[in-house]
Amino acid sequence: MTQSHRIPGRGQIDRARPVRFRFDGTLYEGFQGDTLASALLANGVRLMARSFKYHRPRGVMTAGAEDPSALVEVIEGNQQTPNVRASVQEIYEGLEARSQNRMGPLSFDLLAVNDRLSPFFSAGFYYKTFMWPRAFWERIYEPAIRRAAGLGSLSGHHDEGVYEKAWAHCDLLVIGSGPTGLIAALTAARAGADVILAEDDARMGGRLLSDGGEIDGQPARDWAAGVLTELAGLRNVRLMPRTAVTGAYDDGTFGALERVGLHRAPDAELPRECFWRIHARRAILAAGALERPIAHPDNDRPGVMMASGLHSYVSRWGVNPGRVVLFSNNDSGLATARALTAQGIEVAAYVDPREIPVTEDFPVYAGAQVTGTRGRLGLKTVEVRHKGGTSQIEARTLGLAGGWNPTLHLTCHMNGRPDWSDAIAAFVPRDGMVPGLAAAGAARGVFSTAGCLADGVAVAAEALNALGFKTPGAKIPQAEDAPYAIAPLWAVDAGGRAWLDFANDVTTKDVKLAAQEGYASVEHMKRYTTQGMAPDQGKTSNVAALAVLAEATGREIPQTGTTTFRPPFVPVSIAAMGAGGRGQGFAPKRLLTSDAKTRAMGAPMIEAGLWYRPSYFPRAGETTWREACDREVTMVREAVGVCDVSTLGKIDVQGADAGRFLDLVYTNAMSTLAVGRARYGLMLREDGMVMDDGTCARLGEGQFLITTTTAAAGLVMRHMDFVHQAFCADWDVRFISVTESWAQFAVAGPKARAVLAAVCTLPDLPFMGCAPVSVGGVAGRVFRISFSGELGYEVAVPTRYGAALFDRLLAAAEAEGGGAYGMEALNVLRVEKGFLTHAEIHGRVTADDVGLGKMVSAKKDCIGKPASQRPGLTEAGREQLVGLMPVDRGDSLSAGAHLFNQHDAPTRENDQGYVTSVAPSATLGMWLGLGFLKDGRARHGEVIRLEDGLRGKKVRVRVVDPVFFDPDGGRMRG
Amino acid sequence: MADLKPTVPLAGLNEAIGRARLAALDPGRVTSVAPWPGRNVDAALAPLGLHFPPPGTVIAAQGARIAWAGRQLAFLIGAEPPAALAGVAALTDQSDGWVWVHLSGADASAVLARLTPLDLRPSAFAVGTVARTVINHMQALILRGAEDGFEIAVFASMAGTLHHELTEAMRLVAARARI
Prior knowledge:
The structure holds two protein chains of two kinds.
Chain A: E1 14-23, E2 26-32, H1 36-42, E3 49-50, E4 57-58, E5 71-76, E6 79-85, E7 95-99, H2 113-116, H3 125-129, H4 136-148, E8 163-175, H5 179-190, E9 195-198, H6 208-211, E10 214-215, E11 218-219, H7 220-232, E12 237-240, E13 243-249, E14 253-259, E15 273-285, E16 289-291, E17 304-306, H8 307-315, E18 324-328, H9 331-342, E19 347-352, E20 364-366, E21 369-374, E22 381-386, E23 389-394, E24 397-401, E25 404-406, E26 419-421, E27 426-428, E28 437-439, H10 449-467, E29 499-501, E30 506-507, H11 508-516, H12 522-529, H13 542-552, H14 557-560, H15 574-577, E31 590-591, H16 595-600, E32 605-608, E33 611-614, H17 625-638, E34 641-644, E35 649-654, H18 658-665, E36 678-684, E37 690-700, E38 703-708, H19 713-727, E39 734-737, E40 742-748, H20 752-757, E41 770-775, E42 778-783, E43 792-798, H21 802-815, E44 819-820, H22 823-833, H23 865-868, H24 871-874, E45 879-886, E46 898-901, E47 913-921, E48 926-934, E49 943-948, E50 953-960, H25 970-973
Helix pairs in contact in A: 5-7, 5-10, 8-9, 11-12, 11-13, 17-22
Chain B: E1 14-17, E2 20-24, E3 30-35, H1 42-45, E4 58-61, E5 64-70, E6 73-77, E7 89-93, E8 98-104, H2 108-112, E9 130-135, E10 138-146, E11 149-155, H3 159-178
C-alpha cells in the first residue's frame, strides 16, 4: 500500500482521498482520480494481464479507451464483468479486479507454454491442423483451444445489474473534449445552439490534461477548466463525461455508452451504464488521434507503452516510470522526451531512425532502432542498434511513438472510406462520409494545439451556419503551433517476433504469412490473422498492420486500403442496449379487468398477444390441468360457463360507406347485414391467404362493430388503415380501435339465459343477433354468438365496469351449477366444433383450404380475392382442413405431428399433411385433432397414420369432418 | 339489481420519487372525433370554445380540451360532445380505453427521455402540444401541459406496465441525482 512509484506532489489526483482496492487479491491503495492502470503503475505493478493466444505477460500500453492489453475482470458480488480496460476503469473504495485468461497465478501462467509452442500457433494454424478427423473439431479441438485462447469469463448468472437506456436531442453533438472539442462546443454554446459535449474519459480536456503546454499564457488544463466552467453554467449545454459515442447511424442518430455507476461502489438503484441514442442535427467529431506503436522484437513486455500513454501517466497521475527509453519516428515523440525530462524523468535514451541533430538534454540515438527487449515479467533492458553497434540500455519503461492515427472511426460507420495522407502517414476522413458529421482537429490530421483550436472554431462555425445560428467572431486562443514531422517506420527488421496487434497476438510474421499464402487483400489478411478483431478492434494496430501488408505485397498503403470500421467504437455491453428488457420487461403486460379475481381463484395465466389469460380455474381436489379442463368443458356443455373474451380486437367502423368498406375487406358481404344482426367474416391478405376471422355486428345504419382474433388485432387495424388510405381515402368511413374500451364476457351453455337474466333484462335475440342492453344501470351490449357450440351470449360493458360484471356473472353462473372456464376448455370446446384459430389460419392457407371457400362472395370483389384464384391456390392436391380421430379411442394425438398414408415410410416425399390443433374431448371421451391433409375433404373415413418424430408418437387416425360435435349447430341456435 | 361499481386502473396513484411525481389523472369524458371527408367540425365545436386542432396541438377552453391524436383524428377531452358534432364527424367513446397519468417535476423530462424517443426540448415539444409516440414498447399519447408537466395515456390494459416503466425511470433518474 505504499504507492512506491508515485511522484510526490505530481498529478491531477485527489491525494486527500485515498482509495483502497484489490487486484488479484492483493490490497493496494491509490487516490481518487486514479484508473486501475494508473493506480497499479503507481504501486509498481506493471504485469496486469496475459495475452490472448500466447499468454505473454502484458501491461497497460495506453492511457485511454483504445488499450489493447490490460483487460481485467471486475467482480461485484454476483456481477462479474470481463474484458474491462484497466485504463478506463476508475478505482473506488472496495474495487475488486482480477486478471483474466490465465491458468494459475498471473506471474506463472501455466498456459504460457503456448508461447514456447508459438512456431506452431502462427496465423491459420488451427485451420490447417485441426481439420481431421472432422468430428473432432467441435468436440475436442475447439473447446480445448477456446479454453487456452480467450478473454475474460462470465459468472454464469443472469446479469441482474441495473442498466438504463435514454434518448437525447441537440442541435450540435461534439464528440471529444480536447482543445478542438472544447472550443467547438464553446463556440456553438455561445451562439445559442443546444450542445451536447460527449467525452469518453471521466474528465474533460483530452490531451490538455496531460501534455497541452500553454493556451493564452496559462497552463492548458487551466484554460480547459475555465471553458468547462463556462459550459457547465449554460442551460443549452449538456456535458456528458464517461460517455463514449459508439456509432453513427442514419439521420443524425448516434449511439453512446455512458458509464454511470461503474466508477463507484455498487449501488442497487444507480444504473451501471446508460445506452444513449443521441439525435443531433449536426455533429463534430473531435475525438483526437491515437498513437501507434512501432513493431520491433519483443515490443509487448509490461513496461512497453505508447509515448503518449507514458506522458499521461506521468503528468496526469504522477506515476514514476523509472528509467525511460523512447523509440520514436516523429517530432511528437521527441517533444514527449523533452517534456518528460523537464518533469525530472530520466530519459536514458531517445532512439529515432531519423537523422536528427543530437542536441538534447538526454542521450539521443539518431539513425537508430530498438531491436529487442528483455525482462520476463517486466521490461529490464532495451536493445538499441545504432551506428556504433548494439547497446543494452537498462530501462523500466519503453515509450513507443510511431506516429498518430486520427480517430476517424465514426466517419466510416456508413461505409465511407478515408484518404491516405502522406504528410502525416495516416488515414484522414473525407468530407461528408457521414451526413451532418464533420471531423475537426486531430481527428482530421491537424496536430498542433493552435491548429486544433482554429479548426474547432471553423468547423463549429460551419455547422452553426448550416443550423441557422449566427456566430459572433471569436478570438482564437494562442497556443503551441509546432509542425509535425514524421518518417514512417512500421516494423524493425531484426528477426524475432514483433507485435502489431497486442490484443489478438498478431505479429509482423503473421501478416507476412497471410500475404505469402495469398491473403493479400486487407480484408482477407484481417480474417486470416485475426488482426483488429479483438475487443479493441485494432485501434492501435490497424494502420501498422496494413503498412506491413503493403510492404509484403509490394504495394503502397493507399492501394492496400484499410478494413472497414463499424459500430461500436468501443465495446458495448448487451445489458446496456437491452436495458429494462430482461424477463417480463421484454414486452408490456396487458391485464384483463377480471385479472385480479382470476388470479385470486388460483388460475395459472398464459400469455396471448401480450394479454394474460387464465389457462383453467382449479378447484379443490383437482391435481392436473386435465381434471379442471374436463370439468370446465362438461360444465359448459351441461350447465353454463363464463369466460373473459375482452382480448378480442374490436374496431368501431362508422360512416355512410362503412358497409361498402367492410365488403372490400371481408370476403363475404357485410353491407347486407340488418341492424341488430352479426355475421361471421373472413379477411384475406392481398396475396389471397386468410389473414383473420371474426364477427361483424351492425349496431346502427352507419355503425358496425367488428371483432378480430386476439393476436391479430393490431395486424387487422394496420391492414384496414392501409386499405382505407391506399384505395378509398375519400369514402365516408372512419374507424378506431375500441378493444380497450369494452370488457366483454362469453356466457355459454344451456343455462346461459339464466345467468344473463341475473345481470340484465335479456332481450329476445335470435342466433347472431345483437342489441344494446342496460347492465346494472350501465349502457352495455349483448351479442348472441358462440365459440363453444352451445347456446351462447357475449355481454359487453365499458371497461371500468368489467371487474364488477365478471364477479356478478360468476356468482350467477355458480348459482346455476356453472362457473368460469379458461383457455384450455375454450380450446377443447372449439376443436370439438371445428372452429378455427390462428393455429389453422396460420398464413399459408386459403379460404378454400379451411373449408370456407363459399364465404368468398362471387357477387363482389374483396382484398385478396383475385390472388386467391391463382392456379396454384385452386388446383387439386392442396392440403385441406380435416378432423382427426384416433382409431383406438385411448390414443392421444399431438399438434405438430405429420400425416402419412398407413403403409408409407415417414419421409418428406410421403408427407400427406400435418396436425394443427389437438384437444382431449371430455364430451366425446377421446382426443380430437384438426389438421391439413392433401385433398382431405374427399378422404373422410380413410384411416391414415399420424407420426410425431419429436415425441416418438405413431397413431392410426380416421379422417373425419372437422365438426366433431353437433354438426348441424342445433345447440347454439336453439 | 345493484349498480355495477367502476374500477379505474391506477386510481389514487400519487407517487414522488426524486424530483418527479407521478399521479393518477381523470381526464373525464374522452371522445374520438374523426371528421367526415370534406366536413368542417369547427362550427360544431364552437360552443365549447374549441376548434379542430392542427397536427400536434392541443386547444383548451373552459375546462374542455381537444387534442390532435392522429391522421384526421382528435380526442375531445373533458366534455360531452356537442350534439351537432355527430353530424359532421364519427364519434367514439374512448373514456375507458385509455389510462391517464400526470408526470410532473423538475426531472419529468429526464424521466420521459428514458422511455420515449420524442424530442422533449421545449423548442421541439412546447407547452400545449401533443404527440402520438411510444412509452417504451407501448403506444402512447403525450400532452405537455407545462414545462415540467406531462399527461400520458396508454391503453388501459397496460396500466401496470406504464406504472412500472415510469417509476423505474423515476428511480434511475433519482439515483443519478444522488451522486
